[in-house]
Structure formats: C-alpha cells, structure tokens
Amino acid sequence: MKSYNGHQPILAIESSCDETAAAVLRAPGEILSSLIASQAEEHARFGGVVPEVASRNHLLAVDPLVRRALKEANLTPCDLGAVVATSGPGLAPALLVGAAYAKGFALALGIPYLALNHLEGHLLSPFLGQETIPHHIALLVSGGHTQLTEVRGAGDYTLLGRTLDDAAGEAFDKTAKLLGLGYPGGIEIDRLAATGDPLKYPFPKALMERGERENLDFSFSGLKTSVRYFLEKHPSIATSPEGMADLCASIRHAIVDVLIQKTARAVEASGLNHQEPDGSVHVAVSGGVSANKALRTGLQELCRTKGWTLHLPAPELSTDNAAMIAFAAIHHLKVGESSPIGLEISPQWGVGK
Ligand code: KG4
Ligand code: ZN
Fold it and tell me: Which of 156, 166, 183, 213 is the most exposed place for a label (fewest CB within 10 A)?
C-alpha cells in the first residue's frame, strides 16, 4: 500500500445521518469539490430520520456523488492520496454505506483508508484551511450532539460537558414539531424568532445553578415538556403571527442563553484565560445549530466583551458536509495514521475523554 505524502488530494465521504456528502480536499484547506445530496424532504413526512430509508438513499447516491466530486475537482481516482469516511457516531445502516464504499475505493487503489469521527469533523471545521489548531474551548451543537470540549490541538480532546438528554438541535426540532413547523425545525424557529420578544415567555433553563465545581452539562428535555404544557394551556397563542414570533424567540432564547453562558463558564473553569503566554483565548462553535443567528450574535458579543477570539465555521461548513471530514482527516493522515480495512463502524463513537 502506498503511504500518504501529505500533498495529494484526499476523498472524504460522509453518510452518518440523512445527507450523503462527498468532498475532495488538498491540504490544508483547498476544497476542490464538496457535494451534498440531501434526503431531508423524504424524511420530513415522517417527522424525523428513518434509518433504513437513509441507508437505501445513501446506497443510491454515493457512487454518482463521488464520480461528480472527482469530475468537479478535475481529478481521476489515481490522483488521490487517501480515502476517508465518517465511521461514527451516527445511524449504523447509514454509516455502513459510506464506510464500505470508502474501503472498497481505498483497497482498489492501494491507498490508505481512514475512519473518522463525525464530531471531530465538526470540531475542527471552524479552522478549515489552517495548518495548526489553537488551544481552545469548543462548543459543538448539532442535531445529535451538544458538548463542550477543551481542544489542545488536532486529536487532543477533553470532554468538559455534554447533554444528558436531548441535543440542542433536537430541542429546536422537537419544539418546532410541537408548534406544527416543518422538519428540521431549527431553521424555522430561527427565522420566525426574528421579530419576536425573547423574554415574553420564560421557558426553563436547566442545570444553570452554580456549584463548587462548575456543571458544564446540558439538559434540554424539560424545555420540550414545558412548551407542550404551555401550548395545551394557551392553544390560541401559536395561531397568530405575533404569538408565534414571541414563542419562537422565547424558545430560541431558552436554548441559546444556556449555550452561551456555559461556554463562558467552560473558558473560566478550564483556566484557559490565564494559560496562554500572549493572553489570547480562543473559542470555537460548530455543528448545525452554529448557524443560529441568536447564538452567533450572542457568542460574538460575549467574545467581544471578554477580548476572546471567536472561530465560526463558514455557513456551508456548519451543517453536515464532507469537506470538514476531509480537513480533520488530513491532521491524522499527515502524521502517518490510517485505519485497518477490517475496522468496523462505531455508531456510538464519542470524542474526548
Ligand atoms: O450538524 P447537523 O447538520 O447534523 C447533525 O450532525 O446532527 O445539525 C443539524 C441540526 C438540526 O437539528 C437543525 O434543526 C439544526 O442543526 N439547525 C439549526 C439551525 N440550522 C440548523 N438550529 C437552530 N437554528 C438554525 N439556524
Ligand atoms: Zn453533524
């Protein structure tokens, strides 16, 4: 098997949920192509992702997508230096499709195969194009995960806190469903919240009390229950545009305010604000929910007042894509790492100890 020389373009495949994605990237950050085949519409009628439907669609989409990605990059398979696929966490039947395809591709070409963690892809996405990753606190907020991580560099992660139940994106999607909005509901709530009053309805913010040892975990399942009871008690509020705007703004505030405050607490608890010789503090946010307008402006405001540097992914890199998978993979490949072809997928694979 040829080894990766650090310069050849690599192919990445992402199929952990309801999006098939393929990208070709040249280190450290030249995206030669990045394509996404979304199945969101097919799952929308079920109100969530159906694993077997996702798997069947990945199977249909992956080969034509990879061919197109190579064509757009103006490359042939022989130009590639490695092939990487998301191996977890995610839906097992969905992950299997991308991983099996990537293994076959790598095997046929005699080049390295790498199994990559989807969360690591999100974590490093704000730094796409950079050779080195600064020591920082990362808030990862997606449809399946919500966690605060101390990142010392690529591959060196400490988990500081995570959700004990629903993820932030899930909280948006589930409350949106209660409001009769489409799936995924995070974008809809964000849009409708624009003209609403965020303080109109004080929905609960869990695990916010301060203790001797800072609690950096999250819990969003109580919010969903509280919104359900509220709608049962006041069924007419959501029927007027103003009422809907206030409800959406209040729900968004209940989620986003917790995320912002806990990010600030994580920086303080980690001592990062006293560690770096030049006094610089870096904060990053990634995952689908990082597209949320209130979260973006709230974190920008926090970092501006504290003098911290905020790193946000480009909007097209915040939701699931394969370019972020390729970028994170480069950091492993360039130090000689690869995965055995026989490696199984890891649907529960976490990031950080
Ligand atoms: O990272 P992602 O694309 O997929 C996962 O790995 O889960 O995140 C998808 C999640 C969905 O829950 C979606 O509702 C949420 O990101 N999302 C948003 C916004 N855009 C996407 N949530 C709130 N506001 C948004 N603007
Ligand atoms: Zn994701």
Answer: 213
Determine the atom of ligand 1 nearest the C-alpha atom of 167. Answer: 12
**Same domain for 237 and 300?**
yes
Which residues constitute the domain of residue 292? Answer: 136-312
Q: What are the backbone angles phi and psi of residue 288, rounded to the nearest 5°? A: -50, -40
Q: Residue 104: inside a domain, yes or no? A: yes
Which among 319, 320, 351 is the best mutation to test ligand 1's pocket, defined by most ligand atoms within 8 Å of the CB? 319
Q: Which residue's CA lies nearest to atom 2 of ligand 1?
A: 288
Sign of the dihedral through C-alpha 338, 76, 120, 27: positive
Residue nearest to atom 21 of ligand 1 (CA): 288
What gap in Å lies between CA 227 and CA 213, rounded to an integer?
30
Indicate if 297 and 321 belong to the same structural domain.
Answer: no
**Is the domain of 195 the same as that of 304?**
yes
Do residues 318 and 277 lie in contact, with contact meaning Cβ atoms separated by under 8 Å? Answer: no
Task: Name the token pair of 304.
Answer: 């501006």
Q: Does residue 345 sit within a domain?
A: no
Q: Pocket residues for ligand 1 (CB within 6 Å)?
A: 17, 142-144, 169, 172-173, 184-187, 190, 287-289, 291-292, 319-320
What is the domain count for the chain? Answer: 2
- Same domain? For 222 and 157 the reply is yes
For the stretch 78-116, what's the b/e string if a residue is b when 16 or more beta carbons lie within 10 angstroms of its beta carbon? ebbbbbbbbbbbbbbbbbbbbbbbbbebbeebebbbbbb
Q: Are residues 30 and 153 in the same domain?
A: no
The answer on 19 and 102 residing in a single domain is yes
Residues 152 and 248 in one domain: yes
Query: Rounded to the nearest whole angstrom, what is the distance from the C-alpha of residue 39 to the centroid of ligand 1?
Result: 14
Residue closest via CA to ligand 1's atom 8 equals 288
> Along the 353 residues of the chain, how does pLDDT read in single tens digits?
888 988 899 999 999 988 899 999 998 889 999 999 987 777 777 777 788 888 899 999 999 999 999 999 999 999 999 999 999 999 999 999 999 999 999 999 999 999 999 999 999 999 999 989 999 999 999 999 999 999 999 999 999 999 999 999 999 999 999 999 987 899 999 999 999 999 999 999 998 887 766 799 999 999 999 999 999 999 999 899 999 999 999 999 999 999 999 999 999 999 888 776 677 899 999 999 999 999 999 999 999 999 999 999 998 999 999 999 999 999 999 999 999 999 999 999 999 87
Model pTM score: 0.94
